[in-house]
Amino acid sequence: MKIGLGTVQFGVDYGVSNKNGKTPAGEVESILAVSRELKVRVLDTASLYGDSEQVLGNCLPAAAGFDIVTKTPQFAKPVLDADDAERLQQAFYESLTKLNCASVYGLLMHRADDLFVPGGERLMAALTDLKQQGLVAKIGVSVYNAEQIDQVLDRFAIDLVQLPISVLDQRLLRSGHLRKLKLAGIEVHARSVFLQGLLLMDLSEIPAYFAPVRNILESYHQFIRARGFTPLQAALGFVSGLSEIDRIICGVNNVQQLRDICNAAGVELDCAAFAEFAIGEESIVNPALWRLEPGKP
């Protein structure tokens, strides 16, 4: 199964289309049980996702068989020192305790730019040390753009990258960076494939912030309807059709959403057919830059 389970909703209210808030613990248990049933192996979490790690640790049986990927704290300092490297490792040990597990599949730098300031190599050395101890199988980074990928590959040996890609956000496909990562033998996990649910929303519900690209969204919906695809099938099928993508990280709020995603995941579409819907403006394709007015459609 190419689908991986994003768990940010287990720890915080998240997503432009999420009307139900944080997922209750009982529902989390059901989601994890169905994930095992559907052979969804990867769980993606982070120390910054509220209490997501703790919720997972409380809900996961001791031998759940999942590949857990978590992330470091953010540092956001102009210079990093030995104390920061120690903080990274201490935060990871705390993550293991919360997750109730002895090791994890992946550990990613949550903020890739932390690696590029003076002393950033200390953080990568700390990651490498955790891997050498057998506490982490794969180390890597979470990135937002091509420049970060280039800087990481120029300086460090990594195993895993998490990156954004969707029908609207085709930047890393067009720039050749997906291909570059695969040629380097790096595992690639895709996130933001629904753009926090924007690609799944009815046009009448799309926030006013996206008015500058509404014509593109309308054309996209007409395009997929004409071909008999649901928004879910189209969004997943575009990413599934990319051979460079190893896992597609999808967040869910309930069991039905998980089943729907896994049922739709078998559709693989020709990504070239979606080229006209690519949007280059980062203010649209990077949810971190969205400025949505609460309560306004």
Count of discrete domains: 1
Number of strands: 8
Distance between the termini: 35 Å
Helix residue percentage = 25-40%
Alpha carbon gyration radius:
19 Å
Please trace the helix and strand order, writing H or E for each element: EHHEHEHEHEHEHHEHHEHH
Q: What would the average pLDDT be, to the nearest integer?
A: 93
Low-confidence stretches: none
Global shape? globular
| Spatial sequence of strands, sheet with the most strands | 1-2-3-4-5-6-7-8
What would you say the CATH architecture is?
Alpha-Beta Barrel
Could you state the CATH homologous superfamily?
Answer: NADP-dependent oxidoreductase domain
Largest pleated sheet:
8 strands, parallel, barrel
Strand content: 5-15%
Features:
8 strands; NAD(P)_OxRdtase_dom_sf; AKR2_Oxidoreductase; NADP_OxRdtase_dom; 12 helices; 38% helix; Aryl-alcohol dehydrogenase; alpha/beta; 297 residues
Can you walk me through this structure?
The structure is a single chain. 38% of the residues lie in helices and 13% in strands. The chain is α/β, with parallel strands linked by helices. The chain has a single domain, classed as TIM Barrel. Strands 1-2-3-4-5-6-7-8 form an eight-stranded parallel beta barrel, surrounded by five helices. Helix 3 (52-59) links the parallel strand 2 (42-44) and strand 3 (67-71). Helix 3 packs parallel to helix 4 (82-99) and helix 4 (82-99) packs across helix 5. The two termini are 35 Å apart. 43% of the residues are buried.
